[in-house]
Write a structure and sequence with these properties.
30% of the residues lie in helices and 28% in strands. The protein is α/β, with parallel strands linked by helices. A six-stranded mixed beta sheet has the order 1-6-5-4-2-3, covered by helices on one side. Strand 5 and strand 6 form a beta hairpin. Helix 2 packs across helix 4.
Length: 192
């Protein structure tokens, strides 16, 4: 009887001592903030046997309009992925030979890379519908994160996501949106 009474108190004390990482949250879930994802591969070795990661050579591919600042969006993406993985207990290394796995990613908008082209490159397709939105105000955005074997460069796991990208967002809003999307995409990666 005493154990039944003290367990909730013990759990509450443990929860109070836990820390959380802050990630921007999109304002509500609706048709504009919808994110559709598909994962392929195996994460069972991650969190147990795989601790260090490095960037895949030529790590990021972007298919963005010429008027977007691809370098800045790449920087936002790499910083977000690195922070999320480090918060999960993984260790970043610049040395590809010392890494247990490599991370690569891609960013695209529909005007620069169609669903058919994504399928041909990645082997997955989500086909998020944009028919309900004004194409002058919104575009379909796609993001891919993949984990590779550092010896064979074969994909071990990947997640493809599509969502609605609002045209004309401020740089801070884009940074926040990228961080939230990357967090959602990496959600199933186990902590170390």
């Amino acid at each position: 009887m005493m154990i039944k009474l003290t367990m909730p108190l013990l759990v509450a004390i443990l929860l109070v001592g836990c820390t959380t990482a802050e990630y921007p949250i999109t304002s509500g879930y609706n048709k504009i903030n919808q994110l559709t994802k598909v994962e392929t591969g195996d994460l069972t070795q991650f969190g147990q046997q795989k601790l260090t990661f490095a960037w895949y050579p030529g790590r990021g591919k972007t298919f963005l309009p010429a008027d977007s600042n691809s370098a800045l969006l790449t920087d936002y993406t790499e910083n977000a992925i690195t922070k999320i993985m480090q918060d999960k207990g993984y260790i970043f290394t610049y040395n590809v030979q010392q890494a247990d796995f490599l991370i690569g990613y891609g960013l695209a908008v529909e005007s620069e890379l169609s669903d058919d082209q994504i399928f041909n490159k990645v082997g997955s397709n989500l086909g998020l519908s944009m028919s309900h939105l004004d194409p002058d105000k919104f575009q379909k955005g796609s993001a891919l994160i993949a984990f590779y074997n550092p010896q064979t460069f074969q994909t071990e796991w990947q997640v493809l996501a599509q969502g609605i990208a609002k045209v004309g967002l401020s740089q801070q809003a884009r940074k926040d949106k990228i961080a939230a999307v990357m967090f959602s995409m990496l959600n199933h990666v186990p902590a170390n």
